[in-house]
Every structure is written in C-alpha cells, then in structure tokens.
Amino acid sequence: MSENVDLSPEAAVRSVMREILGLSEEQVNGFTAETELFGALPELDSMAVAGLLTELEDMLDIMIEDDEVDGELFETFGNLVAFAEMKVAE
Amino acid sequence: MISTLEFSSFPFRDHEEFCLIAGASCEQQLLLIPPLFDEMNRMRQVLVDVMRRLEKQGIGSVFPDLPGSNESVVPSDQASLSMWQEALVRCLETFDNLGYVAGVRGGCLIDAVGPDLPHWRLTPVDGQRLLRTMMRTRVASDKEAGVTMTISDLTEQAAHETLNLAGNAINPGMFAELQAATPDTLKTVRQIRLNSDPKEADDKIDGSALWLRAEPESDPALAEAISQDISEWIRS
Fold first, then answer.
1. With 90 as the cut, is the pLDDT of residue B106 above it?
2. H/E/C letters for each residue in B70-135?
3. Facing A50 at nearest CB: one of B133, B196, B217
4. Structural domains of chain B sorted by starting position, each given as residue range(s) with its CATH number in brackets
C-alpha cells in the first residue's frame, strides 16, 4: 500500500521544499544548483529543516543521521540535492 | 444555509472534554480525528472549514479535543496514544449517531475506534516520523543554546523521563507508543493522499501539505477537496 512510486532525489527535494516552505511551483522550479537556501529563504528555519529532513527520509526511503546534518548541507540547493542523491545510492 | 458550528462536550474519566460540532441535526454524522501535536494546530482552520462545508452537504461532524491538548484540563505531560483512543471511544458513545470515522495524519494512529464503522484517512503517518521531526527540532534548539544532543541521546533519556520535544511534553509511555505506532488495519478504509505525494492511495486530491508548514495557514481548495471526497464517500 505504501510503496513509493519512483521519484528522483532532485524531484523529491523540490517537492519537499515547496510543501514545507509554502513556496510556489514557479519559484521552486527556478532553483538551480547555485541557489542559496539557508539565510536566503526566511521560511527555512530550524523547525522547517527538521520537517524537511523527515519528509525527505520518508519520500526517498533513507535515514539521515544527526552528524550528517551541518550548515553546509543547506547552503545551496545543489548541496542538498547532491546529499539526497548520495543517500539514495548508499 | 447558516452554519451551526457549536461547542459541546463528552465525559472522559472524571471530567468533560470539549468538542466542536457542526450540523447536529443532520442524519449522517462523522467523527473527525485531528492530526497530533503541532500538526493539529496547523490543520485546525482547514478542518473547521471542512466541517462547515460538510454541513452544507447535509453531513454533520464532531471534532473532539484530545485529552492534554487544546481546552482539555488533563496536563499535557500525562497524555498518551492509548488515552487519546480511550477518549475517542467515549466520544463515540456520547454521540451515538456517529456512523463514519475520518482521521488526518497522526489521527490515523488512534482511529481504530468503532471497528465496524467505515473509516477514511488522509495521509496517514507513522508515530516514529512524528517523533523524529520533534527530536530534530529539539536537537536544533539545543544546538542554538550551545548544548550538544543527538537523537539517540534523546531516545535514551525518553525511556525514563518526560522530555520536552518541540514544545510537547512527551512522557516515557507516550514516547514508546509513538515509536511503535503505525495505522491499524481496518475493515473498511478509504485512503487519500495529496497529488504531490508519490505514495499509493485510493485516490489523490489537490492541496498543500499544510500540516508541514511552520505557520498555520488556510487553504480553501484543500478544504473543498477533503469535504468533497468525504461526502462522496459517505454517499457511495
């Protein structure tokens, strides 16, 4: 019943950013690897980060450990996507 | 038709718990179980909107406070999933014309009440997921305060003391119940998810995942999609 339909890590990150931060589809579709996140998006506070990580775990069927989460991870959209891709490949 | 949203209550142990009711005179009546913790606050406005829309379609609903939350006199650090389920059973006994049960998110962890009634679920979630988000929020706020704490440290502590996780007082019993909680298998259940959700469901609806938002918001399109699906389900 709850088997995930295949979803690329990048698509999952875009979808989760849109849902958690309440951003528009246009805005999220415009994100590139260089788009800055933490500090540039006022909606992205520590509470949003907590929800975002849990949703990503759920959508991509991965587990994210505490020590994998640092400031760098949320510096840019590209960093976050690269991290999601790495976790999926593990 | 003027909406007749009103407060009522049901007996629970030695006191009364509040509930919101709409369309008390309607023939068909739905028990609406809220999401849990922060998600309840984020979804309350939409769910009350759903109650109003259902009433316009001739369907009444009862939306209970869970003990320890909202107007309840039970201290929040005493709440547990089993206590919440017990309260829902009392609610069903009090409003004995309730013929349908709908649960939203964490509400689906305690919706196995009225086993013979048809059930409806919106985006059910495991207790472990709710805990992880709460623990992550706590780890982040500790970090801002200069304290290094990990999810596994918190899990260890939670076994023998009540923890404050993202503003919720979680006692060891509640923590253990949440760790193990998954939605129960029910006789008849219709499961709905959002179009943005890749997981399987009986049907998908438009709308945004307001339960994830940092600030409570309203979404009339989501309220309309939920009430439309519930009323078609009840009439089918």
1. yes
2. CCCCCCHHHCCHHHHHHHHHHHHHHCCCEEEEEEEHHHHHCCCCCCCCCEEEECCCCHHHHHHHHH
3. B133
4. 6-126+183-235 (3.40.50.1820), 127-180 (1.10.238)
